[in-house]
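Incident log, structure service

09:12 report received: a user says their structure output differs between two submissions of the same chain.
09:20 pulled the input from the user's history:
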Amino acid sequence: MIVIQFILSLIFIVSMYLSMVLFAVLGAIPTLLSRRATYWVVRNFAGSVIWLAWAICGLKVEQRGKIPTGNVVVASKHQSFFDVILHAYYLKNVNYVMKQELTYFPIIGFYGKRLGTAPVRRGQKAKAVSQMMAGLQKYHGDTQLVIYPQGTRVAPGVEMPYKVGAAVICQRMDRRCVLAATNVGMFWPKHSLLRKRGTVILEYLDEVPTNLETKEFVNYMQEKIEKASDRLMAEVGFPGK
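09:34 re-ran on a clean worker, output below:
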């Protein structure tokens, strides 16, 4: 059975990248003319990936909680590329804080720039925060800005501290912060080609209180996201940390 699922996973991966190329080519000119067209291309590509994952691999998606709208920061658990896709599908005006290296990728870099993403070079905390803020200030508008507070994909059961980026953005730009949890790493593992059958859950949680200092903000965010993600993973059989 695992061999069959692995073969299906390879078919899915090829199909996903073919879909990416198709949407990228067809949407290139409209995207240059309109930010609205950029959102349309990104959301429909994300929808195609969700459908392909279900049709080929038997990987379903369940969304829980109230979907964030307006000018907010979405601080999310990050376990695989699939949670990036899910946010792109559910958030109307999605945007991202992402690694600077990704801006050099032909398709991801082009569409990321059209969305107005804030690139960040990891490794130097102070410079990374300044670079992130400079990137965000180039575009003003209502967006749901997705940031991954741990800074990278983190496999289920692995502990990694949360960074201050989300707190800094919210404090300096007067934005609300909505938290998000997921169990996606149980089915779309980091550094693996296998896509497992089951139900991925993306859950939007409550907002972070607006009166917290930076350290309190980070601690609150970490506690709520980790607790909710552990709960979602336990639902599908993860033994816990």
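09:41 both user submissions now match this output. Likely a transient worker issue. Closing.
09:42 reviewer note: Residues 60-235 form a domain with the Glycerol-3-phosphate (1)-acyltransferase fold (CATH 3.40.1130.10). The CA atoms of residues 13 and 193 lie 8 Å apart.
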